[in-house]
Fold each of these.
Amino acid sequence: MSEQNYIGGEWTGADGGATYEKASPWRPSETVGAFAASTEADVDAAVTAAAAAFPAWAKLPLAARGGYLTAAAAALERRSDEIATDMSREMGKPLRESRGETLRAAQILRYAASEAFRPVGEHFEQSLTGRQVSTRRRPLGVVGLITPWNFPIAIPVWKLAPALVYGNTVVLKLAYEAPQTGLHVAEAFAEAGLPAGVLNVLTGRGSTAGAALVRDPRVRAISFTGSVPTGHGVRDEATRAGKRVQLELGGHNPLIVTADADLARAAEAAYAGAFWSAGQKCTATRRIYVQDGAYDAFREAFLTRIERGRVGDPLDAETEVGPIVNQSQFDEVVQAIDRGRDEGGEVTAGGERAHEEALLLPPTVFEGVADDAFLSCEEVFGPVTSLYRFGDLDEALARANAVPFGLSASIFTSSLADATRFQNEAQAGLLHVNSQTAGAEIHVPFGGIKQSGFGPHEQGRSAIEFYTEVVTIYVDP
Ligand code: UN1
């Protein structure tokens, strides 16, 4: 397994040879590997390679480009056990989810390849003559992708797959905390025989390599997934330079449970939504609003499910909740729990470190948190969620919508009227009726509204909007 950058079809160390070590979240005294600490010069080399590869790549038929994606999907599938294990080792996602995510990445590649057979323009008539006027989507050129550690294969792939199939060439800066998983993607494309320079993959810090990518004038567009402050910085810098920008940022996702809901299913979905991947998903369930008549029964079902849950080593196939990715994220979650207590919240489950060495926090549930308290408003990237009571749906929707985020929202109900109101009024880009807030199908748009996103949504038919530009063509004989 290579731990170098992949630039212009070659595996190469960072300029100057600098590397960084990634610590294990399960055994923080151990490292999982040393990776290239890329500099501005490495980004320059990658963009140069991508720019050189663009003309020939853009000329290939869509279906020929798609063929490379299909071959890379097969290469990922062949090594999916190794990838899932590396993912769990380096960033702590439990193996059952790492496996699913790896296979999801292969599916995303196959889906994007199938887009080669869909329309890339529309046909009209000129109004006076009836002659042809049409639109046609064309690639942008070199695109820069900056991806997070929490979905270290799905997110890189869901950005690069449409970018490539529509004819762009790519420079991908992998997350500092999850380099190894993403390098497997580069290997899969190398195995698939992708022409040199079409996909370039770098590791290193966002503040050096990521920033250099955002600044480089040859990069036409930047797609970024990560935190709100970093994302806003990326947007401001990139738009100043005239680039197209797409951001996927945080969430503060509510789950509403009405009194007539199937409470067993709701408790299961609350557990999965709040605690799988230790709550380190921007789609995780942060607030659970339960209607008065069902509150006690839901609370009991939820706490019982937490007791049954398996917390521990991410490489154990039974584990549901693994560690936090690194020490500083762990400290932030612990501080947020302390602040939740200080502001009058009561810890009903969890709340204390669950392992001497590993960065492990158990599922943590708060009650009695005020609507304007930190935990009700700010995203805490860990296994922490709060329970609230509500009277009627007006109240639940108003409180669910009272945050600047708008990524995902769920309702559990058996009332068609309540489900319909939720679909019309919940302020989020992803709405779930009787399913958990996290999770994403590969063939439909993914993205938030309000402060959770910027620019066209990712995935599905939306992806074409970001990765192509429309030209209008008048043809007279
Ligand atoms: C999912 O819920 O499966 O970073 C996907 C995140 C999101 C992806 C969530 N951009 O958590």
Amino acid sequence: MSQPETGQIANVMQEERLFPPSEEFSAAARIGSREQYDALCERAKQDPEGFWGELGQQELHWFEPFTKVLEQQGSDFSWFPGGKTNVCYNCLDANIEAGNGDRTAIIWEGEPGDTRTLTYLGLHREVCKFANVLKSLGVGVGDVVSIYMPMTPELAIAMLACARIGAIHSVIFAGFSAGAIADRNNDAKAVVQLTSDGLFRRGKVLPLKETVDEALEQSATVGKCIVLRRAENEVSMTPGRDFWWHELMAEAAEDCPAEPLDSEADLFILYTSGSTGKPKGIRHAAAGYNLWTKMTFQWVFDWRPDDLYWCTADCGWITGHSYIVYGPLSCGATVFMYEGAPNHPAPDRFWEMIERHKLTILYTAPTAIRAFIKWGDEHVDKHDLSSLRLLGTVGEGINPEAWIWYHEKIGNKKCPIVDTWWQTETGGIMMSPLPGVTATKPGSCTTALPGVVPVILDESLMPVSPGQGGMLCIDKPWPGMLRGIWGDHDRYLDQYWAKVPGKYLTGDNARIDQDGYYWIMGRIDDVINVSGHRLSTIEVESAIVSHDSVAEAAAVGRPDDLKGQAIAVFVSVKGAEPSEELRQELKQHVRKEIGALAVPDDIRFTDALPKTRSGKIMRRLLRDIAAGKETAGDTSTLEDLSVLAKLQSNQE
Ligand code: PRX
């Protein structure tokens, strides 16, 4: 493995297994043949504006037709300019007008086991009422509403109500601290806060309103706060500022026509962490985002009206926005929504719910899959999961071991797995297998969706050859793309468009294999450079995790006088005790799997890895720990700070 001068990244992961869809699955799929898929891709390539224009016309409702499909000025893009539409209308009214008002939109289950079901008509009614509540508090087009709520139907209702009246929602995951809420509220200049008294998590009540009270002391622009009663915990209500959700709803009228909005009107802001630690508010615009999430939901999940679809994400993340609320509902899908923890009251909660509700599609994260593996197969074996027909993953690369477990244990070897690559910024899925067409390879997100044109470039901006890693960019605009960073357009231009002129820079490394399949190699910042060889963290991690005693691993580089960087790996074990012997065994294992170059210099055992609240490993912190430095930077998104304290006190 020699290091090319252009700074390409060495590929050390070999995965040859291939899993084609069954004939039965392909025969019933919306897109069931390579010819059909190729024809779509070809049409999108030859005539992108015709392709998107036609879909925009067909799939969305227009109060006023658009006059153009795409307008571009430098790195600023407008999709469907001149048109007026409404995303909430497309999700609710359009389905009701199509005769599906009595279809179930949301089946919800709370952590304590309470359930609720809302039809499209029922959801429409609640959304209209809540839209009137917002209006009665003075919220109008372009106002920002900050949402810090549990995973209840009201969270979706609140998002849709904002969309209905042209308010812009900023959903903040209900695990963030008061300081993080205030930062986001101030950046967005939010005018109203939505929250609840509390939420249930592993049988306990987390007092959300208390956190919001503290946040609002530092959120000067927020004048009103609406509180949903969920956990019945004691809260303090500030007169004139705080209102009970149910009291306002009791007074609200049911009639609230959807506001015709410009195609490019901001639908929402969603804050995501940036490399500097200062969160950035990613802006998504109404029409393009709506079309993107609707199309990708149909293509990737092969959605059918009788599916019971479950995406386990929280609406506080982009996955919840795009694949719990906007994508599925604009298709008229029935969405299952769950409030709580996957291991409450027992580690079989997910499987128990899938069996009881007979869910057909499961879309979850690799971090959850690794947790299930660690908890033990007995929790899965107790349940009949035969209702499932399709599985998906999102959020990070899935190591082949976890993929195989998901395929065998959860999918009973019959469900295709869609490993979906995308980002908050892309609005929806960009690369993924099409389940009726693509033969999958464990760990690869396979190929691009119609209209998506990925390119992989080296440091001199030349395309890399197959097998070599480089910067993943997207060459052509797509309707779901971000439109900017709230209040900081220069940062948007600088971060996504400056380094590679004319192409969207994803910030990920990737490689393409001899069959044209894409393999994501982690964030550009996560590359380890050992003796001039650039290794991707995910490949070292995958090798370690393929050892029977390893539950999870995170690899980082630390400065090394001799080699430039040395590899440090943080490992949590399963079914074994940390020992010097195991440490040596793991080093041998990596030597065997990848080669001597990738053998870690340090292996540190830990009970758990520090993760963001969305489940991503915080390598930035691990890099500091491995280097023996004080951890610097923002830890506001860290899920469990005690993990960090333990890792620091375990320094070798
Ligand atoms: O590094 C990629 C990783 O997650 C990043 C996007 O994170 P976020 O904006 O929080 O959105 C997560 C939900 C879409 C990407 O830049 N990532 C996401 N999906 C995958 C992935 N890495 C590998 N494989 C995936 N399927």
